[in-house]
Amino acid sequence: MTLRSLRGRLERTLDAMALPEPLTVERLCASLSTTRQRPLTMLAMPLPSGGPCGLWVATGTADYIVYEATTSPTHRTHIVLHELAHVLLEHSSTKVLTDDATSALMPHLEPATVQRLMARTWFDEDAEREAEVAADILSKRIQRPLRGAGQAPPSEVADVVDRLRRSLERR
């Protein structure tokens, strides 16, 4: 599947979901928690070099999004959106950490309770590619203004803004 066709399919999939508007990471987390009827907890922590920079850990009663605490805010947001995309797309884990690794990363969880774990390091897998593209789509939707909620530009620049808008809309 080409990147263009994958992007189109994921845009249609995300369009069909009842995502909160305006879309923010916080509102998306709250929506997923409500939809899945379980708490979704964000955990910032320094992750080992060369290991995953983000994880989605699902237990029988809760979801955890673990993300690298020491990276830039923009990268942290993308990592979180990538992991949330796994949740939205209902991906199943294909790689699971050992009990020792799970205990080291999340000492407050019993390794036996971890039912699903997606780690953001294996980009060659279909689920990782989907989550990466979906995170990009979500990121752009978070940055876009509300439909119909834009303010008119100040009168002294309205003409310039209008010309820019028209030139950018041309294909």
Beta-strand content bin: 5-15%
Task: Work out the helix count.
Answer: 6
Distance between the termini: 25 Å
The largest sheet, given as strand count, sense and whether it forms a barrel, is: 4 strands, mixed
Mean pLDDT: 77
Structural class: alpha+beta
The gross shape turns out to be globular
Residue windows where pLDDT falls under 50 for at least 5 positions: 118-124
Order of helices and strands: HHEEEHHEHH
Helix percent band: 40-55%
Compute the CA-based radius of gyration. 19 Å
Counting DSSP E segments of at least 2 residues, the number of strands comes to 4
Looking across the biggest beta sheet, what order are the strands in? 1-3-2-4
